[in-house]
Amino acid sequence: MRIKAEASDSLMEELKSGVIPETVREVSKDEQVNLDLLVQRIISGRVVILRSRNHVHAKPIGVGEGLRTKVNANIGTSVDYQSLDEELEKLRVAVEAGADTVMDLSTGGDLDRIKRAIISNSPIPVGTVPIYQAAIEAKDKYGSIVEMTVGHIFEVIEKHAADGVDFITVHCGVTRRALDALMEQKRIADIVSRGGAFMAGWMLHNKAENPLYEEFDRLLKIAQNYEVALSLGDGMRPGCIADASDRAQFTELITLGELVRRARQAGVQTMVEGPGHLPFDQIKANVEMEKTICEGAPFYVLGPVVIDVAPGYDHITSAIGGTMAAFAGADFLCYVTPREHLGLPTVEDVREGVIVCRIAAHAADVAGGIPGAREWDSRMAEARKRLDWEGQIRLSLDPKKTRSAYEERRAGRDDACTMCGEFCAMKLVSELLGSDKLVRC
Q1: What is the pLDDT of residue 438?
Q2: Are residues 170 and 130 in contact, defined by beta-carbon separation less than 8 angstroms?
Q3: Residue 193 is labelled as binding a ligand
Q4: Domains plus CATH for the chain?
């Protein structure tokens, strides 16, 4: 059910007045984090709760300081592949694989119908990039994306909010100042963000400032009315490691830091998006810089991809970067699939992308002392010690693949796996040096 926008307290404002909604209590319990501490982090803007007023059947997800690293899965049609059924299957698989959120990045077909179907079928928060729809509709109507009107851009944003989107990416930091920095410094890959390219093209054609920056208060009002979190997009993110950490990227980041403060003052929950492609040695500094400039705002990174020469394996290159980013303080990882840079992902690509990204996130959580992370691994170790195969399958990050791998090479035995068989170290120690037989040497 779509709720008409009307003045009401935002989540941040409710918490400041002493009212604690059930969504916050649910996140506190799920994350094993003290409720009072969580409330203070939300009020300060260091944690956001993703759930729109119009997507009430979605599980509320907390993103930010002291919480489990979250994983997003991108789905959505393209001009060449427009099957709603396939995208709904991707949604189902992403949820099954353990994604915390999905983003509908559709650019082909009936965009409103696709978005609404994904929202109504999603038990987890959904994000979108409204500028995609505004640009595509302008092209259909006027023949070019640069013919978008400011009024239409904001109409599309409000439509997404009214439809129940939980967070939206808005490229407010692609300003004239950032474009000047880009053109002065030069890059190999220029702008690789689709939304950033749409916005930059509009600005250059119309010789105007970014309306999402100029009319940021208008954007904040929409976010307030629907309790939609803003994800401040990184339109200047580097698209190859050679372009990483340049003036254009950091010019945009400084602007986003200013907008984070304005959003907090308005009671609007806000995240900041980040690169992209980064060499491994620059990841820690990039995360720390975002956390400083944006005053601890949750950081949402794509990857980051650490090398450019592994197409077909970029779910792995991004997982390497994702673990380092999350350990350094990033809060939210956007998955990369094996088909990144090559084509629209398949259903299986989505499943594999989610699992690999979850591995990266969990590795960082274990190292960072997130509540419950190490305990999960300890339970797995105990199951392995007992040669409890069902327990190992149940505790595994990907039970479906774990069971398949075990059953395929089981060879009819349950007392050990077929890697070591009768020479299994745990089996031998259990039989020969059990706890009741241990002696000191």
Answers
A1: 47
A2: yes
A3: yes
A4: 70-368 (3.20.20.540), 373-437 (no CATH)
